[in-house]
Amino acid sequence: MKVRCLIQVRILGLMCIILFLHTGISLNAAHWERFRGPNGSGIANSSIKPSQIQSSHLIWQVNLPGEGHSSPVLWEEAIYLTSMSPTTSTFHVLALNVSNGNILWRRDVEYSAFRKHDFNSFASPSATVDADRVYVTWATPSHYFVAALNHAGAWLWKEDLGPFVSQHGVGTSPIIFENKLILANDQKGQSFLCALEKNSGSRIWTSPRRSDKAAYSTPCVYSQPDGKAYLIFNSAADGITAVQPDTGTVAWSYAQAFDKRSCSSPIVAGGKIFGSCGSGGGGNYVVAVDPPDHTLGQQVELAYAIRHSANYVPTPIAVGELVFFWSDSGFLTCADPKSGKAFYRERVRNRYFGSPVAVGDEIVCVSTTGEIVVVAAKKKFQVLNRFDLDATTHSTPGFDHQAMYVRTVSGLYKFMN
User: 189-195: long-range contacts (C-beta < 8 A, 24 or more apart)?
Assistant: First the structure.
């Protein structure tokens, strides 16, 4: 029996080694590949306890060249960010070491400032990353660029998607689906969705869109019960739209979803798809739609709307059987995603442009003044922690298996406990 067990252990170990060699993925790899992590869900697989964060848990703090609102993404031992130095008209792509915050490499692009919203930055879109490449976007009114670099910082390809017309600037982040880099280009000019071949940057498909107010919503993936996947996009002009990832063909659309700009990103919870819209003057609301099952001849339908203290810029988060809406003005609503019934609506104070992220049964969000606020992911409202960085931030934290990374306008912080 001992010999048999030993053989089984050795076989299992050999299989793990083969898997490692075949995939090139470390068994301890730390990945936070895109804005808000896996599928934009905001669910972090980490041992850190945000509720316990205090000054002694700050591992390092670094000053970044330039300024920006892009959120950190991670792949193994590197953190990737973008920033822009208005005084030198330079856009920066940065890779930092997770252990000490040192800059591993920096790539600069000539850039020109232009009119944008005061709350936006010239480096708001977050990068996305996979095992081979880092993908970034930046824009001026005349050019909307998307580019890829390898993990050593060498430029691999760059594509110009044409002009980007908006009085508020750019903000949508790219995502990866299979072999494609997906990007939403919803603007006041010529709008479209596109998929680029991630190895070369060549166009796979383009899906035309109606144009209205520029949208700042990063797409997510919705998988039907039968496993068929769709890309979900939000915009004022086209509402909530599901697109077939192979062709860019619109599978279904709830075009009347929004009457204002869409900034938050879609999420899936309780079998429904959520999106929101709003404005600086108010009128924010959230809609939940029931996605159709075409095999049953169904049509997309509105499930319900939430109009009181709704989020505009922050993206909602679903934890277990609950969904949480963290509003710009500092109200938190906890609801049943299936019915929309609110369990509570409470004031957490401050203003928020970053989005909430959950670690276990804790939800963390960072205010515009840099206060890290942690609440319980439960039906009963409970503030677990407040820790103030006293620095402007419009970004969303990133995580690895044991740490949290918070980006301010001009700095980056690492916390562990």
Answer: 189/162, 189/163, 189/164, 189/165, 190/162, 190/163, 191/235, 191/237, 193/231, 193/233, 193/243, 193/248, 194/161, 194/248, 195/245, 195/248
**pLDDT tens, position by position, for the chain (417 residues)?**
433 443 343 433 444 333 333 333 333 457 999 999 999 999 999 999 999 999 999 999 999 999 999 999 999 999 999 999 988 889 999 999 999 999 999 999 999 888 899 999 999 999 999 999 999 999 999 999 999 999 999 999 999 999 999 989 999 999 999 999 999 999 999 999 999 999 999 999 999 999 999 999 999 999 998 899 999 999 999 999 999 999 999 999 999 999 999 999 999 999 999 999 999 889 999 999 999 986 666 899 999 999 999 999 999 999 999 999 999 999 999 999 999 999 999 999 999 999 999 999 999 999 999 999 999 999 999 999 999 999 999 999 999 999 999 999 999 999 999
Q: Which two tokens stand for residue 189?
A: 């000019």
Q: With beta carbons less than 8 A apart as the criterion, state whether 35 and 73 touch.
A: yes
Question: Global pTM?
Answer: 0.91
Tokens of 130: 């996979």
Which helix H or strand E contains 2, and what residues bound it? helix 2-23
Contact partners, residue 382, CB within 8 Å, separation at least 6: 375, 376
Phi then psi for residue 275, to 5 deg, are: -150, 165
Chain Cα centroid distance, residue 286: 18
3-state secondary structure of 327: coil
CA 381 – CA 347 distance, rounded (Å): 10
In the chain, what are the domain boundaries? 36-415
The span from the CA of 392 to the CA of 144, in Å, is 27
What are the Cα distances from residue 309, in Å, to 132, 229, 265, 285, 342? 42, 32, 17, 8, 12
Q: Quick one: which H or E segment has residue 62?
A: strand 58-63
CATH class of the domain defined by 36-415:
mainly beta
User: Which of 401, 398, 414, 395 has the alpha carbon at shortest distance from 314?
Assistant: 395
